[in-house]
Design goal:
15% strand; alpha/beta; flat; DNA methylase adenine-specific domain-containing protein; Ribokinase-like; 4-stranded antiparallel β-sheet; 24 helices
């Protein structure tokens, strides 16, 4: 049949341009009468209009509209084929990816071929109908039109492989709850592949036992840096599994069958690396128990020297569980196969961008290791950007953590810590909240003393109020890595208690008298403490469920930037979105030391701007014999900081009054 032009509906134009659906009609209206009017619809279908995909792509390129810089190249992948005769979109997608795979295999244009010629080529390329023949046969006489469309898509994307990746990406973006899809982002797959490559020592055979899984196989092949890998996949005939084999064939990855029995058991070659992302693409609605059973089956199949990398939702692999789910996961941990647990950032799953993944690295316990010697490496990377430095440090930590226990304990971890297996089994919180990594390269006591002297001298010289700050320093032991814990762990152990702030009506906020307010403006220094207040009676009447701060409360916020102060006096009102962290009145005895409000606040203030996961923030312990002195000095420094902020506020008011008065001609300045 002759080629019908690929078309786009208004909703697909919006998805292509990465804007909301109502934006597109506004573009059309505003461009009317301009030098670049929007394309006119080529036909109507149902209650909607359809537009020529090529005209839309050229218009987006000419006007620069939308948030997708590659929209002109992506347009063909988001289009529909006018006149498709009611063929389902899923069938069209499978056929298009099959034709692009065929195009890779034969290395020629397909658009001039008839249906029979296309089927003959498909039979030659896939005689066992393992990945593409039936998909092309399913569209029958529509195959030539789709073949021409595949040619256009390959030309726009500069290669059939790139075009296939765009069609797969478009298919994922258009997924619905009725037709769900599961896929990692390219960045996530690349990072996990680097981790897998390093953990396995560069294995050349990679096994993915999840039906339909291909993201990690493709990424592992890329991570092999030209050496290439042999992929072993489940040979099921569902659409996702066949798509995975087409994708691997298009990427020129040698693929072999992985035999999996009804219970999920499989056998991997001795030198193979096992990778898995759950839920599986062929079973996107897997529940927690099913995912944990799949992980358990992977652990059971590993032999000495093999490594497995499994990524799954944090709610499955890290968050507290109960009932059968907890029993399955606890059994996995007790087996000793779980060697590392890493919390990953959100945004790594295309269809659920708010979801956090957790990574498990599995490997058989080294021979001769007693239960008491079993440790699990944990790392909370939920706030990491995974740029070059983050990834390299994690790889170094993992390499050390997977060694024999004695060697692992000798390593200075950057992001990770070793947790004894018995401790992990009894812990009831998030498995990656079991503590905090310790910073590397501790500075010496002499360096600390020199820095303190430099800072106090500079402060005294520049302070117009001539306030002297002196911190006498004596000799301590050699510099050590400070013991730490995460805020999440401290909350779980009830050592810290989070207290929400109160959303205040702006009309209730005053500038004189009343109770002082601490909000984001005060935390970031835009306003000095005490400038904003609220009447105590009104606060009690209008906000009956709200509470005042208590002395020593740590008030903090994450926006517009991360900041914290200690309210040493208490009886303040915390304005949301600012919040409070309250230390327990009586801290449990801890060999690591004691927690001080000033040190907690100081640790929060050193967090990088992107570290929005509060539970992952590390907090340092203070030696008990130094706690009182350190808190006294921190409190005095805090008082001076507040005084200086008030001075700065007065100077700002003075400057405003001066220029406002002069420019309004209200005052005239006298010369010296």
């Amino acid at each position: 049949m002759p080629l019908e032009r690929p078309t786009l509906s208004l909703s697909r134009i919006a998805t292509l341009a990465q804007v909301q659906r109502p934006v597109v009609p506004v573009w059309r209206t505003r461009s009317t009468g301009s030098s670049t009017p929007s394309p006119q619809p080529v036909r109507a279908e149902g209650q909607g209009e359809l537009f020529d995909a090529r005209e839309v792509s050229e218009w987006l390129r000419a006007t620069g509209r939308g948030n997708n810089p590659t929209a002109p190249e992506d347009a063909v992948a988001f289009a529909e084929l006018a006149g498709s005769g009611g063929v389902e979109d899923q069938v069209m997608f499978q056929a298009l990816t099959a034709l692009l795979c065929l195009k890779v295999a034969v290395g020629e244009q397909l658009g001039d071929l008839g249906t029979e010629e296309l089927l003959d080529l498909a039979d030659d390329a896939d005689p066992d109908d393992a990945y593409l023949y039936r998909e092309i046969a399913a569209v029958d006489d529509l195959a030539p039109a789709l073949a021409a469309w595949a040619d256009q898509a390959a030309s726009a994307a500069y290669s059939p492989v790139a075009a296939m990746e765009r069609f797969i990406g478009r298919h994922i973006e258009l997924a619905t709850p009725r037709d769900p899809a599961v896929a990692l982002t390219d960045h996530a797959a690349a990072v996990l592949a680097r981790v897998a490559h390093a953990a396995s020592g560069g294995a050349t055979t990679v096994v993915d036992p999840t039906p339909g899984g291909s993201d990690l196989l493709v990424a592992c092949n890329a991570a092999a840096a030209g050496a290439g890998v042999t992929a072993r996949t489940v040979q099921r005939q569902d659409p996702a599994s066949r798509l995975a084999r087409r994708r691997l064939r298009a990427h020129d990855i040698h693929c072999q069958a992985l035999l999996v029995d009804g219970d999920g058991a499989f056998q991997a070659p001795g030198d193979a690396l096992v990778v898995a992302h759950l839920p599986a693409p062929s079973a996107p609605t897997m529940d927690r128990d099913a995912m944990l059973r799949a992980v358990d089956e992977i652990a059971l199949q590993l032999t000495e020297g093999q490594v497995a990398l499994v990524a799954a939702p944090a709610s499955v692999l890290a968050k507290p569980l109960s009932g059968p789910s907890d029993e399955i996961r606890s059994g996995l941990l007790r087996s000793g196969s779980v060697r590392a647990i890493v919390a990953l950032p959100k945004g790594w799953v295309r269809t659920t961008p708010q979801e956090h993944l957790t990574l498990w690295i599995l490997a058989p316990t080294p021979r001769g290791t007693t239960p008491e010697q079993r440790y699990v490496l944990t790392a909370d990377m939920a706030n990491a950007r995974f740029d070059g430095a983050d990834l390299e440090y994690l790889l170094t930590d993992l390499e050390a953590g997977l060694r024999a226990p004695a060697l692992a304990h000798a390593h200075a971890f950057r992001f990770s810590r070793l947790v004894s297996l018995p401790s992990l089994l009894t812990y009831r919180g998030d498995l990656t909240d079991t503590g905090a990594p310790t910073p590397r390269d501790p500075i010496t006591g002499d360096e600390v003393a020199k820095r303190l002297n430099t800072l106090t001298r500079a402060f005294t010289e520049q302070n117009s109020r001539s306030v002297m700050i002196d911190i006498p320093v004596g000799r301590a032991t050699a510099g050590q890595r400070p013991p730490t814990a995460t805020i999440g762990w401290l909350i779980t152990e009830k050592i810290l208690r989070p207290v929400p702030g109160t959303r205040l009506d702006p009309g209730h906020i005053g500038a004189t008298g009343g109770v002082r307010i601490i909000g984001c403006d005060e935390l970031t220094g835009r306003r000095p403490l005490g400038e904003r207040t609220i009447d105590a009676a009104r606060f009690a009447l209008e906000y009956p469920n709200a509470r005042y701060t208590e002395p020593g409360d740590i008030v903090f916020a994450t926006s517009p930037r991360i900041a914290a102060i200690v309210d040493y006096e208490g009886t303040s009102v915390v304005e949301a979105p600012a919040r409070v962290l309250r230390l327990a009145a009586k801290q449990p005895v801890d060999q690591r030391g004691v927690l001080l409000p000033g040190v907690v606040a100081a640790g929060i203030n050193t967090q990088p701007p992107h570290a929005k996961n509060v539970r992952a923030w590390p907090v340092r312990y203070t030696p008990p014999d130094q706690a009182d002195e350190l808190e006294r000095h921190l409190r005095r420094i805090d008082n001076e900081q507040h005084a200086l902020r008030q001075q700065l506020s007065l100077l700002a008011q003075l400057a405003h009054t001066a220029y406002d008065g002069v420019t309004r001609r209200s005052i005239a300045l006298a010369g010296d």
